[in-house]
Amino acid sequence: MSEARIRPRQVLVLIIVFLIVLKLVHHNGKHTCQGPEYLQAMYAQQEAGTLPHIYAITPTYARPAQKAELTRLSHLFMLLPNLHWNHCGGF
């Protein structure tokens, strides 16, 4: 069996790259994720009255990928407060 040798220089380069990526992810994460405020729209019952009601009507026709598309759409709609979704069409 051949033995793979790792040189100290390669290890040093890998550690430096890992630390740079870790620093970038940590720094960018502070700006993109707001912790509990990120999910505040889902749970803010007192603010739900101030938001307008949105009514979405989706007419569809039967096709092979319909269930997958409607499932994906329903997961998106569950994130929106005060949304009323009416699905009209063939299954």
UniProtKB/TrEMBL annotation:
The keyword Signal applies. This is GL14436. GO terms for biological process: glycosaminoglycan-protein linkage region biosynthetic process. It comes from the Eukaryota. One of its GO terms (molecular function) is galactosylgalactosylxylosylprotein 3-beta-glucuronosyltransferase activity. Residues 1-27 form the signal peptide. Keywords: Signal. The keyword Ribonucleoprotein does not apply. Transmembrane segments: none annotated. InterPro entries: Nucleotide-diphossugar_trans (IPR029044).
